[in-house]
Design a protein that fits this description.
By secondary structure, the protein is of the alpha/beta class. The protein folds into three domains: 208 residues, Alpha-lytic protease prodomain-like; 75 residues, Cation efflux protein, cytoplasmic domain (Alpha-Beta Plaits, 2-Layer Sandwich), CATH 3.30.70; 74 residues, 2-Layer Sandwich (Alpha-Beta Plaits). It has ten helices and six strands. Helix 10 links the parallel strand 5 and strand 6. Helix 2 runs parallel beside helix 6. The chain is rod-shaped, with a radius of gyration of 34 Å.
Length: 380
């Protein structure tokens, strides 16, 4: 697990540092070129690239923390550092978009500041399109391979810059053809695109922070995989959630009510192993074993625990001296009652005819305890 986290962090850092380099160059080229070439849309696109640079920094910081193993303070790991970074990135993009749109809207209605961009700004837009599209494909491929929504989101941020550069290209070309208003209009379109991406990133990550369940199709697949185990009679209370790049599953399964504790535990481990092997992003499974459906009213909840019950039982059994030899007691909490199963050495019998009397005495004494519904004495 530690090796996987370390390798995952290295891959995130590698592709993100390449993004930092590309975004740094593009930010400088676009902003300087936009100012010199008098292109408002290119300046807006340069600020978009600058936001990519800031988002890359968020990814690097989040990857450092998310790559740490679980500890006492974070028993489920640090995966949600990625989620928090994605939410912050989404909010940041929306703020940037509002500022860009406001400034461009002023220029649309102010004829005096509408200038025709220089021809060289077209080359800058083309350079941005090809470089950012290349970064999208590289980053997206890494994000899919390591199952990181944060890296995939950053890849789409690269593509949004590529698409916005296409809009900038159209705006500059239109201005060159005698329609200078197209340049600030293109800047507004870019701002709307940035805001939409920011909203999508923030919304989906915020859903993860409030423990929204996995997609319905995935939940159904999980149900089917659990029910493949023949020992599982039913399942209910299936809960799922995401934790960064991983998913957590919590499920109650119904098994035969009189299985041993060890067999029930073995079934739960088999289900846990099956889910982790079958779903790449599931790494934590909690299986609760139920002898009866506890989605209904918990009828056994108020029944006495073993220590209290044994005291009451032994008090009643003391009325019959032969029951002092009971050496093994099993309790079953079912249907709102307790079934008592006890063993007693066969050597206490003087004759086989005494067995029925022993069982009758045991049953009557046990049923005298209010919470006991059935009682069975066995000889060994």
């Amino acid at each position: 697990m530690a090796q996987n986290l370390e390798q995952r962090t290295k891959e995130i850092n590698r592709v993100t540092w390449w993004g930092v380099l590309v975004n740094l160059v593009l930010s400088i080229v676009k902003l300087v070129g936009g100012v010199i070439g008098q292109s408002q849309s290119l300046i807006a696109d340069g600020l978009h690239s600058l936001s990519d640079l800031i988002s890359d920094g968020m990814v690097l910081v989040a990857a450092k923390h998310a790559g740490e193993e679980a500890d006492e303070d974070h028993p489920y790991g640090h995966g949600r550092f990625e989620t928090l970074a994605t939410v912050a990135l989404g909010m940041f993009l929306i703020v940037v978009a509002v500022g860009l749109a406001y400034d461009a809207a002023i220029r649309v209605f102010d004829k005096e500041v509408q200038a025709v961009p220089h021809l060289f700004t077209l080359g800058i837009a083309l350079f941005s399109i090809f470089s950012k599209e290349a970064m999208y494909h590289v980053t997206h491929r890494v994000g899919v391979r390591i199952n990181s929504k944060m890296v995939i989101a950053n890849a789409w941020h690269h593509r949004s810059d590529s698409i916005s550069s296409v809009v900038v290209l159209i705006g500059i070309a239109g201005a060159q053809l005698g329609m200078p208003m197209l340049d600030p209009i293109a800047a507004i379109i870019v701002a709307v695109m940035i805001a939409k991406i920011g909203y999508d990133l923030g919304y989906h990550s915020a859903r993860e922070l409030v423990d929204t369940a996995l997609e319905p199709e995935t939940v159904e697949q999980i149900k089917s995989k659990i029910l493949e185990n023949e020992e599982v009679l039913e399942l209910h209370m299936l809960r799922t959630r995401r934790m960064g790049h991983t998913s957590l599953v919590d499920v109650h399964i119904l098994v035969h009510p009189k299985l041993s504790v060890s067999e029930g535990h073995h079934i739960s481990e088999a289900i846990e192993t099956s889910l982790i092997k079958s779903f790449d992003d599931i790494n934590d499974v909690t299986v609760h074993i139920d002898p009866e459906n506890d989605e209904c009213e918990a009828r056994c909840r108020n029944l006495p625990l073993r220590s209290e019950l044994i005291i009451a039982l032994k008090h009643e059994w003391s009325k019959y001296s032969e029951l002092d030899e009971i050496d093994d007691i099993t309790l079953h909490y079912l249907d709102g009652w307790i079934t008592v199963e006890a063993n007693i050495p066969l050597t206490v019998l003087d004759s086989l005819q005494d067995a029925e009397r022993f069982q009758t005495n045991f049953r009557e004494a046990s049923l005298a305890v209010a919470s006991v519904g059935e009682a069975d004495l066995r000889f060994h």
